[in-house]
Every structure is written in structure tokens, then in C-alpha cells.
Design a protein that fits this description.
Layout (H helix, E strand, L loop, with lengths): L6 H28 L3 H78 L1
Length: 116
């Protein structure tokens, strides 16, 4: 007995091998379709890097604006405190001067009556 396969068996094995290879190549083609080409990857990576750089610049600009607003607010608070202090002193002097004049005129009037 010979252990060699017959021509029919060889044909069936070759057909099975071709079917298996076709399936594998189809699977490989499907996987390759899901992959991104190097050009597309490079363009996408460049775009992402540019967008990140732009966002970082925006964040730095916003931080600088916040710092400027905080400085402006502190300046406003100091100026407002000075203005209130000046207004308080002006009101105090507006009250003291007429009262002092009234007291002085009353003292002069009493002195004039007593001096007669």
C-alpha cells in the first residue's frame, strides 16, 4: 500500500488551502482597512499639536487677564478706601467748623453780656 494521496485528494487539499488563504487574506485586508495611513496620521497629529498649542496660548492669555483683573480690583479697592476716608474727613470738618463757630459766637455773646 502506498501512503501517497491520490490526485483527487491533492486537488481537494489544494482547494482547501486556497480557501483558507483567501479567508486569511480577506481578514488581513479588513484589518488593513481599519488602519490609518502614515500621511493621515501625520496630518492628524500635527492638527492635534497645533490645537493643543492654541489652547495653551488661550489658557495663558486667560490667566494673564485674570491677573490683570485682580490687580485692577485691588487698585479699585485701595482708591475707594482713600475716597471714603477723604469723604469722611470732609464730613467731619463740615460738622466741626459750624459747631465751633456757633460755640465761639455763643461765648462772645455771653462775654459781651457779662462784660457790660
Amino acid at each position: 500500500m502506498t501512503t501517497e494521496p491520490s490526485n483527487g485528494e491533492l486537488g481537494r487539499q489544494i482547494d482547501a488551502l486556497q480557501a483558507m488563504l483567501s479567508g486569511r487574506f480577506a481578514e488581513l485586508g479588513a484589518r488593513l482597512d481599519k488602519m490609518v495611513s502614515l500621511d493621515v496620521y501625520t496630518i492628524q497629529t500635527t492638527h492635534v499639536e497645533q490645537r493643543l498649542a492654541q489652547l495653551q496660548a488661550d489658557i495663558q492669555r486667560c490667566a494673564a487677564e485674570v491677573d490683570q483683573l485682580e490687580d485692577d480690583f485691588e487698585t479699585y479697592q485701595r482708591e475707594e478706601a482713600r475716597r471714603r476716608e477723604a469723604e469722611r474727613q470732609a464730613r467731619l470738618y463740615q460738622l466741626i467748623v459750624p459747631v465751633a463757630i456757633c460755640i465761639i459766637s455763643s461765648v462772645i455773646a455771653v462775654w459781651a453780656v457779662v462784660a457790660k
